[in-house]
Amino acid sequence: MEGKKISESKVTMAQLMIPQNANPAGNVHGGDIMKLIDTAGGVAATRHARAYTVTASIDRMDFHSPVFIGDFLTLKASVNFVGKTSMEVGVRVEAENLVTGETRHTGSAYLTYVALDHNKRPIQLPPLLLETEEDRHRNQEASARKQMRLAEKRDEKRST
Q: Which residues make beta-bridge pairs with 95?
């Protein structure tokens, strides 16, 4: 199976935040942002696999600052690590105030996706080709997160 470069599956998605995205506090609802994150991550995963993908887990979701109605949200997603049937995708969220031009890093997430065949069974993924030092660094960090997830799963099984 031929490998794929990270650059082949990168995604940049943008959306204006409007009043229907507001939570009771008047800020953009975290759930709306999480849905956009899952969408951007899913597109990157599907581009890499060239197959339908499903979200297996959200390893981490950090909100660094609030997003406000009227902000222009940009989500940047890229595949960080590929295993046999699953892959980690990182998503960075930035909000731009269109009036002032200020841009803020408002959130980051790591999600795991599994690619499925037509019978909804996991399929083998193309390997990830690392081109840059940043690619290698992100891949090493993702590999470490995968090892932590696997250790947590083993610990959960032992305690039940």
A: 73, 104
